[in-house]
Amino acid sequence: xxxxxxxxxxxxxxxxxxxxxxxxxxxxxxxxxxxxxxxxxxxxxxxxxxxxxxxxxxxxxxxxxxxxxxxxxxxxxxxxxxxxxxxxxxxxxxxxxxxxxxxxxxxxxxxxxxxxxxxxxxxxxxxxxxxxxxxxxxxxxxxxxxxxxxxxxxxxxxxxxxxxxxxxxxxxxxxxxxxxxxxxxxxxxxxxxxxxxxxxxxxxxxxxxxxxxxxxxxxxxxxxxxxxxxxxxxxxxxxxxxxxxxxxxxxxxxxxxxxxxxxxxxxxxxxxxxxxxxxxxxxxxxxxxxxxxxxxx
Amino acid sequence: xxxxxxxxxxxxxxxxxxxxxxxxxxxxxxxxxxxxxxxxxxxxxxxxxxxxxxxxxxxxxxxxxxxxxxxxxxxxxxxxxxxxxxxxxxxxxxxxxxxxxxxxxxxxxxxxxxxxxxxxxxxxxxxxxxxxxxxxxxxxxxxxxxxxxxxxxxxxxxxxxxxxxxxxxxxxxxxxxxxxxxxxxxxxxxxxxxxxxxxxxxxxxxxxxxxxxxxxxxxxxxxxxxxxxxxxxxxxxxxxxxxxxxxxxxxxxxxxxxxxxxxxxxxxxxxxxxxxxxxxxxxxxxxxxxxxxxxxxxxxxxxxxxxxxx
Lengths: 297, 310
Fold this sequence. Notes:
The complex is a heterodimer.
Chain A: H1 2-7, H2 10-49, H3 54-60, H4 75-80, H5 89-120, H6 126-136, H7 145-154, H8 162-165, H9 172-184, H10 188-195, H11 200-211, H12 213-228, H13 232-237, H14 246-254, H15 261-282, H16 288-296
Chain B: H1 2-51, H2 71-78, H3 80-112, H4 118-130, H5 133-143, H6 150-158, H7 175-200, H8 204-212, H9 217-228, H10 230-245, H11 249-254, H12 266-276, H13 280-308
């Protein structure tokens, strides 16, 4: 194809090329418009959170003023940013961050180690363990939650940070994702490392882990979104402000009779920022093909 | 000869010792995951079958827990509200599949082309998927406001006032449909990613060959893209169905199962039985039923994938 294109004099190519370019621009612009329509509820949220008057927010909703704020103010954020007291969304946000960071970091370590052993270890029964792990993936969180609540409350873990972190660190899906990623790396890497006297763990830590940035990023994003957006579990196991995550706090605030839309919106924006940050940081290595192949397996 | 033997036996001893150390390391690396999965997944899972056959209350009482065999299951199946919940999630599934999978497929097709700002666009389309359901409820709660919310305004404007304002979340006829709309918007992003992966998996040569054969864009789509995506379609359908049967958060926040039980779901029914009525045994029976439903859907997926995968 390119050979033929090269042999045609430049002048003759120019016209179709510019037509193609116009088409390309039209196409891009229309996709951007679709994308804007899709994200418009989120734009609405951000704009409304900058408005001072909660009645005005509702009045504006029906018109294009919903997307415009003439006198932006951060007063709503100041109202919900407290670290203690009634609207202590600042505190709930910190609670959620503690839970997020601890769960994802320990999840990356625990699941990647297990995936690595299942991929390259020589332990007997690996195949059995792997098929059990895959089978466990079918069990939905919702169907173990009843006995789990009883277990943790008898163990005195209710209303703590630990109860929101420890049960969800190990996950069949993420073990399997790491397993799949590691099997795609060449086995020679491990053999060479062991030849040089490195231990199995050393090979994992110094050679395989640095190579698995796409897997680490993908699991971070998936696990981060999952942890950050947990709702059913924390609402069952948290009763006080002590370890309450921001999702539960917003839902409780939202459930009250007279809704302070302005504050609910500001708290919602606060809740979006960390997870958006996580996504933006890891997005570069977020490999979609990897998810596709793994979830099908 | 003798020396050779001794060196080889020594090296065998060393490998053996190294192997033993290596096996210890492997066990130590595997242990955290195994222990956590056992304590927090396998044990509660097995426990749910046991609890389902007892009259276990939420808060321990002085009276001993009795074994009631399948009474909880029988009572669940005799409860009209349970069947309403099951019917509602089935209705939800029926609507969410075209809405969510359709949106995911369409956006994936748009993004699969060579576009400027592709990553930015992908990020924008993925934005709803990273938004917490709680936040989604706050936003869509305003969009659904009755009678002057944005949706009603837009409908009124487009129809020139012919369409009366709809009480999206307060009307039993509309409530589940409204939940479908916001759920599809929130969750399609993941399916879009899966579809993008599926599209990447179709080799370019197939398209080139089809072009040489003179197939137009539509025929290329119909005879190359669609067959290539068959396993992806199955996977996306199944995931969406399983997700749909677990519907809870948006219903709990926006409608609490109402109005007139029109948005009651299986998980919401289970949580109410367990925590409002404090009947753990009964709630566990519902959770076992939920598991069986999910298992059946997953098994169907395996069968279908086996048939499609070459």
